[in-house]
Amino acid sequence: MTIQFNAKKREMQGSSASRRLRRAGSVPAIVYGSGEPVQIEVDHNEIYHALRNEAFHASVLSMNLDGAAHSVILKDTQWHPYKQQVLHLDFQRVDASHVIHVKVPLHFINADVAPGVKLEGGMVSHPITELTVECLPAVLPEFIEVDLKDLKSGASIHVSGLKLPVGVKALTHGEDPVVATILAIRGGEDEAAEETPAA
Question: Is 198's pLDDT higher than 50?
Answer without folding.
Answer: no
